[in-house]
Request: fold
Amino acid sequence: MTHSAPHLNFINGEWLAGYAMGPNRNPSHLAEVIAEYAQGDAAQVDAAVQAALAAFPAWSTSGIQSRSEALDKIGTEILARKEELGTLLSREEGKTKPEGIGEVTRAGQIFKFFAGECLRLAGEVLPSVRPGIGVEITREPIGVVGLITPWNFPIAIPAWKIAPALAFGNCVVLKPADLVPGSAWALAEIISRSGTPAGVFNLVMGRGSVIGDALVRHPGIAGISFTGSTGVGRRIAQACVESHKKVQLEMGGKNPQIILDDADLAQAVELSVQSAFYSTGQRCTASSRLIVTQGIYPRFVEAIKARMDGIKVGDALAAGTDVGPVVSQAQLEQDLSYVEIGKAEGAAVYAGGGRVACHTGSGNEGFFMAPTLFTDTTRGMRVNREEIFGPVASVIRVKDYEEALATANDTEFGLSAGIATTSLKYATHFKRHSQAGMVMVNLPTAGVDYHVPFGGRKASSYGPREQGRYAQEFFTMVKTAYTLA
Ligand code: NAD
Reply:
């Protein structure tokens, strides 16, 4: 039995209206409002934090068995409803239905993983340097955490923050992206029936500048885990440092994909297309710089153009769609403006370059954009330095592996980086010398496992890693205890 509309905020175990309701629109069909969702305010953030603070003493000392069971139950329901939740996700965010179902599946798997992980929170026992004394190192929850998430993974990113937060005994206030409240609300509704006591998990929907800002500044919050743009992340980090909050940031990318002369051409084309254009290029791990050595360059650009010509763009839920719509009008305008910026910088539009009609022939009523590829680009161009966050990529032609590596690392970002090669020597060198947090050999830069750490370097990430066993670094704090025997 699930709770149906109205879609309100969830605070202290109750569904509460905000100051207004806001529409959640379908980017495949602009006239379609999926549902109305509550818009909270700073007073609701305060109520949520107070509820979480009140729930924390009991929850943080509750048995790991009950926490594990709650997380397992949440994961089971998500997986059982993956078709329905994946469809909702595709309607609100625009990724295709298989991609939507895949993301929901991942969210369910994450809850299942942390249901196990909360039983395995280990400490250390060491002898003291002073005779007769024992030393214990243990991990404790940090308190009430504020989780702020972006629109491009509407359920997986909330899941990969909520699950470890609850597993290790923290209480949560979630602020999802205002563009995609539907999946986060559905997740909150599942959590509301999981047996977690009132106040342990709270949802406050609304604008980033209102809800996000109030969370970041609230004195009751012990830590902020944020995923989103580098600019917003930087400001959040400054505010957190001032108030001694723990902070974890996952931000933008400008991920390089190197293609060497010795690469398997068909494989290199496929992984480049997958990571540059699928999910509409709206992944922080998308490759937007295809760095191609000169020997394979003519064959690569010809083959990728042929592959791109076959990509079907359109309604996220239509059968056969490969690439869904851009998420919003503002994002579409940003993507199209970068096409003009690239042209003005001297790049050639080799494929795509503008809006297209849905492949089903049902018109052009969604934010549909053709996968776009620039050639004749250089590494200093804005299209190769700034995150566009749409179905737009550039090819950069280089002489050899050394120039490819230098070009790949010549960016303020450092999230994911790929190399397509049959050379063990270059693959091994790249794994060691890439300045990215995640390195892929003969695989797309996007597409990662849920049980291992996720994150980057430089302006892409700040603070401890997310996911896998490493998630405990942010969601726990260490205590050292000495006992005289
Ligand atoms: P965004 O920074 O605009 O928003 C992210 C979240 O922050 C939203 O919930 C938003 O409402 C909130 N927010 C906005 N202003 C705020 C403020 N002043 N104070 C507190 N919160 C505020 O990002 P977006 O457009 O939703 O997402 C796209 C970005 O996310 C891209 O840059 C992408 O690379 C990045 N991203 C990174 C990762 C990663 O793991 N590295 C994953 C997914 C997306």
In short: DSSP finds 14 helices and 22 strands in the chain. The two ends are 55 Å apart (CA to CA). The mean pLDDT is 97.
